[in-house]
Amino acid sequence: MNMSEIKIFSPASVANVSCGFDVLGFCLELVGDEMIIRKTKSQGVKITKIEGQKLPLDIKKNVAGIAAEALVNAYPSKEGFEIEIYKKIQAGSGIGSSAASAAGAVFGINELLGKPFTAHELIGFAMEGEGLASGSSHADNVSPILLGGITLVRSIKPVDVIKLPCPKELTAVILHPKIELKTFHAREIIKKNVSLEKAIQQWGNLGAFISALFNEDYELMSRSLKDEIVEPVRSLLIPEFKLLKKASINAGALGFGISGSGPSVFALTKGKDIANKVSQAIVEVFSPIGIDFEIHISTINNQGIEIIPN
Length: 310
Fold this sequence. Notes:
- The protein is of the alpha+beta class.
- The protein has 2 domains: 5-164 and 302-307, Ribosomal Protein S5, domain 2; 170-299, Alpha-Beta Plaits, CATH 3.30.70.
- It contains 10 helices and 11 strands.
- Strands 1, 2, 3, 4, 5, 6 and 11 form a 7-stranded mixed sheet that branches. Strands 8-9-7-10 form a 4-stranded antiparallel sheet, with helices on both faces.
- A hairpin with a 6-residue loop joins β8 (255-258) and β9 (265-270).
- It is globular and about 60 Å long.
- The two termini are 15 Å apart.
- 48% of the residues are buried.
- The mean pLDDT is 92.
């Protein structure tokens, strides 16, 4: 089928997942951006409309434009492409706003070209856009958006990403405080050197978490959802982080941590009943602060980007 236009839903995502800084990520349901991409007679890439956020239309200054241009340069076409972006994910929210735009752009163009690239190959192009947003190219957000589910980034040079199994009852609770925390700034405060002791603890937790996914071992998962390296520093930027974490664990969460670079935080639970209790506990802690927020309960989205029928 030769399509000239495609409309897609590009979902939000949670990166790092406590024990997997820059290597783990999972994809969310319901929360995400919509994009329309169409072929044009003139070559090149243009962003013609952005609604929901004040972001640049200039393709050199927009993650979607940079990612799209990287793909088009690798697979030249006589036709061009124009992109409309309907942002539902706030920039600087910590749930993959830039990744949704970058991944959505390359997914849509690839579909219109007849799928010359695999989903795995698209990760490299989407990473080009992420480099603009955070100052360094990383794949922990774009990978689950393009592959679906939970992913592990073994390497980015070359790109080597593994899709991990997802236990059926695994549910996420996401608190998004309506404050902006740019990834670029959040990366600046991270220590460049880590003690061998902390590194060993982190390796152990990451390996155990992956084993827990394969074996649907929720108790092991709970013991593994610990961040010895980044959370102690970044949590200082998030209002009432320690209280939120304590309340979530007391309400039955398997673990609690920072989503990406923040300010969003997440809890993982076994089942939606516990997720509802955790959500209530989070709201009780955060509401008195006086900062606007959104809270989402989501199963893990195993599909990733979805084509919306016209």
